[in-house]
């Protein structure tokens, strides 16, 4: 007896992102579909950044976790299009990022057209919007380094893409 | 060679060789932030390589994976342009090389999002968003250092003078490109070249840099005729697979 797709979704909501364990794979918005093909459970995942080293770990984590919880015959499938956007990060996910010390991405990423200057970044520690970009790249490709001019703390910003 | 396969290899090899060059900065860049930036952009490029070379393997139909194509081809089989294989002789050269490549890569990818081949369009849709960030950084640095101190200006202008002849290869076209354009797979190469010229002219003006006036052009990379640096890149990049065939991580 395979688990219902709603149950699988709730399990996916408990698998942490390997790079940013504060948020789950479901929060990140990379799970595009959960369904059955005959009795095979197919989880469709879209990659975040092309070169993100977490991509293969994520596929492995999903398979391992679902099998551990009793699912059988699991396939993790990659889907390229539509391309992942940070707009798919849930409201709950954004709040978890902020609490973890990472400023969440500006919404409506398409309007930012990849330009950091177009993005309003508030400090995740004190909330001030008086922040300055130190480097367009942070500890991972998805982040940029900022400093808050109010509390002087450096922090990571999850870039809108 | 099938023109579609040639197109996939050219896109993949450009990303692969530039990614390898970019990765060489890891632990060596002049400041920590730029070290991290180059390493992360290298990651993007290697990820993009995997998409293009995987597609190339499918198009070729001989069962070769992206890894096979990256690690087991010889120098003359690589179709990257000469620009991306030029060495990291100076940080200014690396930045200028990145900027010139980005200035071509972005309009090329924007055009490819409308490709009649849906696999190509899907890759481009993904990659173009990353490349917007690449050029956001490289353009800012070219302008900032070009219009910076006497020393930074001289080095950026020197880098531009050194690399400009290789732009000919970046913008070169042949029968395969014509065929791909005619089939609606790639955008009009002349439109992409026009975007490149407009982008670079505006940036060089803002950075107080002069576009070199030279008749000197260097081409051949896109057809496998490389500069002397290419063999050394492959020697380092392919060492492990050549020495221990089939070894896995």
Describe the SSE topology.
The complex is a heterodimer of chains A (161) and B (249).
Chain A: H1 5-12, H2 25-28, E1 31-37, E2 40-45, H3 54-68, E3 74-78, H4 91-100, E4 102-103, H5 109-112, E5 131-135, E6 143-148, E7 154-158
Chain B: H1 3-23, H2 32-60, H3 66-71, H4 82-85, H5 91-112, H6 118-146, H7 150-163, H8 167-170, H9 175-182, H10 189-206, H11 229-243
Helix pairs in contact in B: 1-2, 1-9, 2-6, 5-6, 5-7, 5-10
* Radius of gyration from the alpha-carbon trace of chain B, in angstroms: 17 Å
Structural class of chain A: alpha/beta
Beta-strand percentage range of chain A: 15-25%
Count of domains of chain B = 1
Brief write-up:
In chain A, 25% of the residues lie in helices and 22% in strands.
Would you mind describing this structure in some detail?
The complex is a heterodimer of chains A (161) and B (249). With 161 residues, chain A is an alpha/beta fold. A four-stranded mixed sheet of chain A has the order 4-7-6-5. In chain A, strands 1-2-3 form a three-stranded mixed sheet. In chain A, a hairpin with a 2-residue loop joins strand 1 and strand 2. Chain A is elongated. Chain B has a single domain, classed as Up-down Bundle (Ferritin). Chain B contains eleven helices and no strands. The mean pLDDT of chain B is 96. The two termini of chain B are 32 Å apart. Classes of the chains: A alpha/beta (161), B mainly alpha (249). Chains A and B meet through loops of A and helix 2 and helix 6 of B.
Which terms would index this structure?
A: 161 residues, alpha/beta, 3-stranded mixed β-sheet, 5 helices, B: mainly alpha, Ferritin, 11 helices, globular
């Amino acid at each position: 007896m395979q688990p219902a797709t709603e149950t699988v979704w709730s399990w996916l909501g408990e698998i942490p992102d390997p790079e940013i364990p504060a948020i789950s794979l479901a929060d990140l918005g990379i799970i595009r579909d959960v369904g059955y093909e005959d009795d095979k459970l197919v989880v469709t995942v879209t990659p975040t950044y092309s070169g993100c080293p977490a991509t293969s770990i994520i596929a492995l984590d999903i398979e391992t976790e679902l099998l551990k919880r009793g699912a059988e015959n699991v396939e993790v499938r990659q889907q390229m299009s539509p391309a992942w956007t940070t707009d798919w990060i849930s409201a709950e996910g954004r709040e978890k990022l902020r609490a973890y010390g990472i400023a969440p991405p500006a919404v409506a990423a398409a309007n930012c057209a990849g330009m950091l200057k177009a993005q309003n970044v508030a400090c995740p520690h004190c909330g001030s919007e008086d922040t300055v970009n130190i480097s367009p790249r942070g500890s991972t490709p998805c982040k940029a380094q900022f400093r808050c001019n109010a509390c002087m703390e450096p922090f990571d910003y999850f870039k809108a893409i | 060679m099938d023109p579609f396969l040639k197109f996939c290899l050219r896109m993949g090899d450009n990303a692969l060789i530039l990614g390898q060059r970019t990765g060489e900065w890891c632990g060596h860049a002049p400041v920590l932030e730029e070290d991290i930036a180059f390493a992360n952009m290298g990651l993007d490029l290697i990820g993009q390589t995997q998409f293009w070379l995987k597609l190339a393997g499918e198009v070729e139909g001989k069962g070769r994976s992206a890894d096979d194509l990256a690690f087991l081809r010889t120098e003359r089989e690589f179709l990257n342009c000469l620009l991306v294989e030029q060495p990291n002789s100076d940080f200014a050269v690396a930045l200028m090389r990145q900027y010139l490549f980005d200035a071509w890569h972005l309009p090329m990818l924007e055009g490819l999002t409308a490709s009649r081949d849906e696999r190509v369009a899907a890759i481009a849709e993904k990659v173009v968003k990353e490349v917007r960030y690449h050029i956001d950084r490289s353009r800012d640095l070219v302008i900032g250092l070009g219009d910076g101190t006497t020393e930074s200006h001289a080095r950026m202008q020197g880098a531009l003078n050194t690399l400009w002849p290789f732009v000919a290869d970046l913008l070169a076209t042949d029968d395969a490109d014509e065929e791909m354009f005619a089939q609606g797979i790639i955008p009009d190469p002349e439109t992409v070249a026009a975007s490149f010229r407009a982008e670079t002219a505006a940036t060089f003006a803002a950075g107080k840099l002069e576009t070199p006036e030279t008749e000197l052009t260097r081409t051949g990379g896109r057809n496998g005729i490389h500069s002397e640096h290419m063999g050394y890149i492959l020697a380092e990049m392919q060492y492990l697979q050549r020495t221990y065939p089939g070894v896995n991580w």
